[in-house]
Design brief:
Elements: E1 2-3, H1 10-17, H2 19-27, H3 33-47, E2 52-57, H4 63-69, E3 74-81, H5 84-93, E4 100-105, E5 121-125, H6 133-146, E6 152-160, H7 166-180, H8 186-199, E7 203-204, H9 205-214, E8 220-225, E9 231-236
Parallel strand pairs: 1-4, 2-3, 2-5, 3-4, 5-6, 6-7
Antiparallel strand pairs: 6-9, 8-9
Helix pairs in contact: 1-2, 3-4
Bound molecules: S-adenosylmethionine (SAM).
Length: 237
């Protein structure tokens, strides 16, 4: 595992200090990992017919990514995350895999520094919404620049509804949380809600699509919306 950075702010604290909260979120399917990652698996199976490399930015424990790639034509995986705890779980999830896997502890927006070849697929699950709109655009331009010819970039992100501001987004998040989320005790719930209230900066569906076009992708589309209406997957080519 390559160690590159130790930076920490509120948007990363929840994951660095306490991966077990996020593990519970995944296990209870609160953020529709199961359905979203099935969509990723299907798209990869439809579109990646030749051996390919996969860059997983803010990969977390790679629980679902490793399962998506298992049985696909992936030959190389690189996971970048700022949490060494998450990366050690990610490493375990690739144990015994035929895929050559490398794990880098770093800020995911600095990913171009760590690449030795152009990735065929770049995936970011639930992490770009911490950036401001202008940073999102710069990040997506960097992706466009390094992505292999004919490659695929996909995002799984929370979305704003047209006309909604961040305060209203938080109220909608809290209502969704009360209705659908399971498995967290009251302290964990408070911690999670503070994280969402203080750090999330989602875009509307149209803005996620527009950002892709502005970054230079010819094809920019929404391919999935989860049951709660909070999360969507976007595909850029
Ligand atoms: C919501 S989790 C998403 C994990 C995984 N991608 C998924 O789909 O479940 C966010 C992840 O981003 C990581 N993270 C947060 N800020 C980061 C940063 N600036 N650079 C790299 N990783 C970061 C956290 O450690 C955490 O693993």
């Amino acid at each position: 595992m390559t160690k590159q950075s130790n930076s920490e702010d509120l948007s990363t604290k929840i994951f660095i200090k306490n991966w077990s909260i996020y593990r519970k979120i995944i296990e209870n399917n609160n953020m529709s990992h199961k359905e979203g990652y099935s969509v990723l698996k299907q798209i990869i199976s439809d579109e990646m017919q030749n051996p390919f490399s996969f860059l997983d930015l803010a990969c977390g424990d790679a629980y679902y990514s490793s399962r998506v790639l298992n049985g696909s034509k992936a030959i190389k995986y690189v996971g970048i995350d700022i949490s060494d705890q998450a990366l050690s779980f990610a490493k375990d999830n690739f144990k015994g895999s035929q895929i050559s896997a490398d794990f880098i502890e770093a800020d995911f927006v600095k990913f171009p520094e760590f690449l030795d070849s152009e990735p065929d697929v770049i995936w970011v699950g639930f992490s770009v919404h911490h950036l401001d709109s202008s940073q999102k655009l710069e990040f997506m331009k960097d992706i466009r620049e390094v992505l292999a010819h004919g490659g695929l970039f996909m995002l799984y992100e929370p979305i704003l509804i047209d006309g909604e501001d961040l305060k209203q987004y938080y109220v909608r998040f809290k209502n969704t949380f009360d209705k659908y989320w399971k498995g967290l005790d009251s302290e964990e719930s408070e911690y999670l809600l503070e994280h969402v209230r203080e750090t999330e900066k989602p875009e509307t569906t149209q803005d996620w699509i527009a950002l892709g076009k502005e970054a230079g992708f010819g094809n920019s589309e929404k391919v999935f919306s989860d049951r709660t209406g909070l999360y969507e997957i976007f595909k850029y080519k």
